Amino acid sequence: MSAPPPLTAEYATYYDPLHDDPGPGAARCLGLYAKLAAGVTVVTARGEDGPLGMTVSAVTSLSARPPLLLACLRDGSRTLSAVRAHGAFAVHLLREEQHELAGRFANPTAPAAERFAGTDMREVLGLPVIAGALAWSVCLVADVRRYGDHHLVVGQAAAVHVGGGRPLLWHDRRFRSLRDLVPEDTG
Questions:
Q1: Model pTM?
Q2: Nearest to residue 80, comparing CAs of 170, 161, 141, 160?
Q3: Which pLDDT does position 66 carry in this prediction?
Q4: Which of 4, 72, 111, 148 is most exposed, with minimal Cβ within 10 Å?
Q5: What is the pLDDT of residue 22?
C-alpha cells in the first residue's frame, strides 16, 4: 500500500485533514451533500412496541427486475433496528404539502408516538403505511451493509401504490417543491 500524497497548498485548499483519515472534512462534505436535491421519504417499520419511522432523503431505485429500492438509514436508529429485526420496511415518498410530517419524522428526539400522532395509517403486509403519501412501497429486506455512519438497506418491493401530485424535495438544507427550483413558463 502506497503512502498518501504529500499535503501541498493546492491539496489543502480542497481537503481538510481529519485525524488519520485522508480526504475532505465533514463540513465540506456536508456542504456538497446539501446541494444534492432529493425526494423526501419517510421509512417506517414495525417495532417491538408499535410503529417506528424516520425521514430519509437518501432513497433511490436500484433495479426494475427484480424491483429493488435502496435506502440509507442512520446507524443506531430505532427504525434501522426494527428493519433488521423484522426484515421489512415501507418507504413513503411525501407530497410537497407534507413538510410538517417530514419535520416530525426527522426529529431524532421525538418518540415514535409523537411522530405518528394524528397520522392516518393502515397496515399493508404487517407494516405501517402512511395514507396520503405521493407513493409508497412495502419492501422485504434483500441486503443491509454498513458504510460509515449509515447502513444501505436494499429492499425488494412487495407492494406499491402511486398517487398523483408533486413530491416534497430536500435541497440546500430546506424543504422545497418543484416550483421553487424550476421557474414556470410565463410566455
A1: 0.80
A2: 141
A3: 96
A4: 148
A5: 62
> Considering the chain, what percentage of its residues have pLDDT values greater than 90?
65
Cα(164)–Cα(154) distance, rounded to whole angstroms? 25
Confidence category of residue 183, pLDDT binned at 50, 70, 90: low
**Average pLDDT score over residue span 117-132:** 95
* Contact yes or no for 91/83 (Cβ under 8 A): no
DSSP of 120-181, one letter per residue?
-EEEETTEEEETT-SEEEEEEEEEEEEETTEEEEEEEEEEEEE--S-B-EEETTEEE-HHHH
Exposure class string for 49-69: b at 16+ Cβ within 10 A, else e: eebbbbbbbbbeebeeeeebb
Count Cβ atoms below 10 Å from residue 147 Cβ, excluding itself.
9
Pairwise CA distance, residues 170 & 175, whole Å: 5
Q: Maximum Cα–Cα distance for the chain, whole Å? A: 60
| 87 secondary structure, DSSP code | S
**Which grid coordinates belong to 98?**
407534507
Per-residue pLDDT of 37-50, as tens digits, reads 788 999 999 999 99
Q: How far apart are CA 42 and CA 121, in angstroms?
A: 13
Q: How far apart are CA 14 and CA 66, in angstroms?
A: 40
Say how many residues make up the chain.
187
Contact 92, 41 (CB under 8 A): yes
Tell me which of 12-21, 32-41, 59-68 is least confident. Answer: 12-21
What structural domains does the chain harbor?
A: 40-175 (2.30.110.10)
